[in-house]
# Entry
Amino acid sequence: DQNSSDPHLPLQWPDGLVLVGKEDDIKNSQRITAKVNGREVVVFYHEGKFHALDSRCYHEGGPLNLGEIEDIAGQPCIVCPWHKYVITLETGEGLYEGINPLEPSPTPRWQSKGVKQRIHKVTVNNGNVYVSPPDLSVSFDSDYFADKYKNNGDLAV
Ligand code: FES
# Structure
């Protein structure tokens, strides 16, 4: 198609999808950062799937692009490098280990705080990877830091 062959065309498709990279490149590097409508987004390739999230942690804006991926309670999660908050790649839920003091022998269990980190839809087409622009009619905790770091030049560490 014409869009992908001319590097001078804007990296924006009519329906708003933003080209963030080549499928093969992201599969090799396993993660990239990109700007989507001015906000910092991290795209992970993990166990055969692409996941895109706001790159700034909903807690205090830590760089999730520098975190480790761990499987927690059966779900792939990114662990924020700053204070080790755990966020599911699939849904953006914040997980915490809590105990129920009413149980006879309370054991810590992973529980969800709900969706805290905005996730972004990823589309792979013809060897290219696209991220959909965010639906800002719904808000998430990570929006605060996405706005704070918006259009801020290089992704900070
Ligand atoms: Fe991510 Fe605190 S900023 S855990």
About this structure: The chain has a mean pLDDT of 90. The radius of gyration is 17 Å.
